[in-house]
Amino acid sequence: MRFSLNFLKEIVGLKASAEEIARRLTTAGLEVEKIEKASSDRIFHVEVTTNRFDWLSVVGVAQEAAAVFNKKIKLEYPRLEQFSQIKERKIFIEEKKDCSFYLAKQLENIKVKDSPLRLRSLLLNSGLTSVNNVVDVTNYCMLKWGNPLHAFDSDKIEGDIYIRRAKRGEGFIGIDGKKRDLTKENLVIADKKKVIALAGVMGAKNSEVTSETKNIFLEAALFSPITVRRSRRQAGLDTESSYRFERSSPPYFI
């Protein structure tokens, strides 16, 4: 895993050198393998142990850094004052053991465009490529909080949402443009006609956000680590999202 030092400093005020920060984090158990220079930023490459899924977020790393440097973190936790149920479609979780929680929000009249330079830089220095402002914000939230989000083009979704196992003969073309045959090993997000995502792993090409997108269906969920691991192995995929879900995404950040 890698993270941006500038991103970390947004949450905890650190005046120590990058080398000293790396030394103390390593002493605390978060091994920093190397530090890479990137203009006015420093990129930390770290080895995260399987039992510390909280370190898969900048917030989690910031909490560790705050402890070893005796600092306070500067963080406001988001609070949703009011949540209204989506009227456009219903959500059916067919396998509770595979998906214990699924929340969605409809966002309308969105303008898809390039992200600001600061956001693009943070993503690049964290190992991700900038796509557009909508996708970039979901990736920013994943990096910061550790919880992967996924944005669908709502107008490309037909009918209700189903979280279920793939059916025999179903296929999937991911946002990477590659086609994969699915089996019952795969947990999918589907509408009434098609698979729109490999749950916890990758979205489908048929519902991706593009420059033409006007309305967003935003997903937040908790998927079984074992189910995600088996599913992504069957599909031959390894993504930032699956990496986190396989290690238990922290529910208290949702």
Give an account of the 3D structure.
- This protein is of the alpha+beta class and 254 residues long.
- It is built from seven helices and 13 strands.
- The chain has helices at 5-9, 18-27, 58-69, 117-125, 133-145, 225-235, 240-245; strands at residues 2-4, 31-38, 41-47, 91-93, 99-107, 149-153, 161-165, 171-173, 179-181, 187-190, 195-198, 202-203, 216-223.
- Strand 10 and strand 11 form a beta hairpin.
- The longest helix has 13 residues, at 133-145.
- The two termini are 22 Å apart.
- The mean pLDDT is 92.
Tell me the structural class: alpha+beta
Biggest sheet statistics: 5 strands, mixed
CATH architecture of the largest domain: 3-Layer(bba) Sandwich
Poorly predicted ranges: none
Helix content: 25-40%
Number of contiguous helices: 7
Domain tally: 2
Per CATH, the superfamily of the largest domain is Phenylalanyl-trna Synthetase, Chain B, domain 3
- Largest beta sheet: what is the strand line-up? 4-7-10-11-12
Gyration radius, in Å: 19 Å
- Overall mean pLDDT stands at 92
Briefly note the CATH topology name of the largest domain.
Phenylalanyl-tRNA Synthetase, Chain B, domain 3
Oligomer: single chain
CATH class of the largest domain reads Alpha Beta
Could you name the key traits of this structure?
three-stranded antiparallel sheet; Phenylalanyl-tRNA Synthetase, Chain B, domain 1; 254 residues; 2 domains; 25% strand; five-stranded mixed sheet; alpha+beta
Write the layout of secondary structure elements.
Layout: E1 2-4, H1 5-9, H2 18-27, E2 31-38, E3 41-47, H3 58-69, E4 91-93, E5 99-107, H4 117-125, H5 133-145, E6 149-153, E7 161-165, E8 171-173, E9 179-181, E10 187-190, E11 195-198, E12 202-203, E13 216-223, H6 225-235, H7 240-245
Parallel strand pairs: 4-7
Antiparallel strand pairs: 1-3, 2-3, 5-13, 6-13, 7-10, 8-9, 10-11, 11-12
Helix pairs in contact: 4-5
